[in-house]
TrEMBL record:
Signal peptide: none annotated. This is Pre-rRNA-processing protein Ipi1 N-terminal domain-containing protein. HEAT repeats lie at residues 99-137. One of its GO terms (cellular component) is MLL1 complex.
């Protein structure tokens, strides 16, 4: 074959027969892969050390919901916290600082129902807390109550 004829053969389109599949290219990349699932049952277990309320929320979940943007979620968290603390009063002593800091922070919420639920929760807590327990937190409570905190 002449050089010119060889060059023309390189650029000729291969005509395919009807019903035949297109042949695989020599430099085709195999894209097959296999997958397997990973089972980690230890991570899916619930932490049974903290008591939960009737909605299966523990104190950490309820306190974290106080930062939610939705007023209904905040109010529900305050009511759930009141329910949880009435069922398990020993939680009050263990988590008093977290409870007071989160509840006093929602005193200045825009929604009146959230503020009312926060006040009701503190009224519920007041007889259950001794004066020496709440005295370190009095500036915090007073500060948020008068809205002079940031």
């Amino acid at each position: 074959m002449t050089r010119k004829r060889k060059r023309q053969d390189d650029f000729q389109k291969v005509k395919l027969k009807v019903g035949k599949k297109k042949p695989k290219l020599e430099n085709a990349t195999a894209t097959n892969f296999k997958t397997k699932t990973i089972h980690l049952p230890e991570q899916l277990k619930e932490d049974g050390t903290l008591p939960t309320n009737n909605r299966k929320l523990n104190i950490k979940d309820l306190l974290s919901q106080m930062h939610h943007y939705n007023a209904g979620v905040k109010q529900s968290a305050l009511l759930g916290l009141k329910d949880l603390l009435s069922q398990y009063p020993f939680i009050i002593d263990a988590h008093l600082s977290n409870i007071l800091s989160e509840v006093t922070a929602v005193f200045t919420d825009k929604d009146a129902n959230v503020r009312l639920a926060a006040v009701q929760l503190l009224q519920f807590l007041a007889p259950k807390i001794r004066a020496e327990q709440i005295s370190p937190f009095f500036p915090l409570v007073f500060c948020w109550r008068t809205r002079s905190c940031g």
